[in-house]
Amino acid sequence: MYDALDTYKLLDKLDTPIFVLKVTDFEKQDFKLIYANEANIIACGVDLKKFIGVDLRANFPGLYEVGLADKYFESVMTQKTLEVGEVVYGDKNVNRSAYTGKATPISEDTVMVTYKDISALKEAEQKLLHQNQVLKEKNKSLEEFAYITSHDLQEPLNTISSFVEILLKTYDERMDDNCRQILGHIGSSTTRLKNMIISILEYSRLGTQKEKMNIDCNLLVQEIQEDFKTLLDSKEVKLHISNLPSVNGSASEMRMLFQNLISNAIKYQEKGSIPEVSINVEDNQQGYWIFSVTDNGIGIAENDRQKIFKMFHRLHLQQEYQGVGIGLANCLKIVQNHNGKIWVESVLHQGSTFYFTIPY
Ligand code: ADP
Predict the structure, then answer these.
(1) 337, 285 contact by CB (below 8 A)
(2) Strands, E assignment, 18-109
(3) Are 313 and 330 in contact (CB under 8 A)?
(4) Contact 342, 354 (CB under 8 A)
(5) Atom 14 of ligand 1, residue of closest alpha carbon
(6) What share of the chain is helix, strand, coil (3-state, %, to 5)?
(7) How far apart are CA 196 and CA 158, in angstroms?
């Protein structure tokens, strides 16, 4: 046997503010307050218990002005629980704040109201929205900065290149070997810098083409294969391609993604080995395709597997393997623009698999 519980005491211990209204005049939609628990003190800054028995309209006119009293009345009349959406309410007796609540009919003339103050939540939401906007603007101006500077930097570099060429052509007979060699170095460094600047330009443009389309990845990889025919033939590459799905995305970016991963798989091989490259796909059953590009190349040490996705991060000298070091940074940006992820698994001297996900 349980002792009888004091229900009012129990309701006073609840965190949820509750008050109950009774219709006193159906015509005028008048109510009086017949119950309130203690949680109201914290929730709206008022001890509603002090208002028990009083007329609602006279003491809380704001409830009528913002349409809350209408909802309470509707709940009584329809005998249905009604959600009261976000509403900003304040009164001579109640703190002004943003509230949501619920009106639940208890009898044919009484309704119970529960509510919560959501101003802190709204404030946090506003702050987050603002921060997000600031971040977006900063990102945009950074990309514009990258675009403008890399665009303008090309001009003086072109001038240096042309003058090096003129010097080498016109003054060739008057130069000794040392001088020729130095000019050669200036020329090749300038070309390298130019390539890097072009890469930054390309990188800053990724994501600017907003329209997405349906892309048949089979067709895409087939086209890349045709473009790479000379390279594939000369290196005797064994290419295995599974049946690939169609995805929604930017055609030029998806093409660049596959192209970078395939060309790296062919490039980063031990001398003399025949590259074997497989392109596969799996459905992760959670809304994503997991594509993979596997090679039998030199592999990547565990410590380097994150770093290689950073701009201009290379693990080898130009003499060993040529490159600018931006291909994988592009891949990362492209995959992120398509709401996916990219990562690599690898065994040194045996090969690597680059995985990336694209939502379907
Ligand atoms: P790049 O090829 O121009 O150097 P990437 O950004 O494409 O630039 O690659 C960055 C680095 O990651 C490469 O320099 C190489 O060291 C490493 N890497 C990329 N792909 C592979 C691969 N398939 N196998 C081994 N190492 C790779």
Answers:
(1) no
(2) 18-25, 30-36, 82-89, 97-107
(3) no
(4) yes
(5) 314
(6) 50, 25, 30
(7) 13
pLDDT tens, 18-57?
A: 999 999 999 999 999 999 999 999 999 889 999 999 999 9
CA 256 to ligand 1 center in whole angstroms: 15
**Which protein residue has the closest C-alpha to ligand 1 atom 11?**
314
Between the CA of 259 and the centroid of ligand 1 the distance, in Å, is 13
Q: Does residue 188 contact residue 196 with C-beta atoms inside 8 Å?
A: no
* Substitution candidate for ligand 1 out of 199, 309, 310, 314 with most atoms within 8 A of CB: 314
Domains with residue ranges and CATH for the chain: 4-117 (3.30.450.20), 118-205 (1.10.287), 211-360 (3.30.565.10)
pLDDT in tens, 180-201: 999 999 999 999 899 888 888 8
* Entry pTM: 0.68
What's the gap in Å between 41 CA and the centre of ligand 1? 64
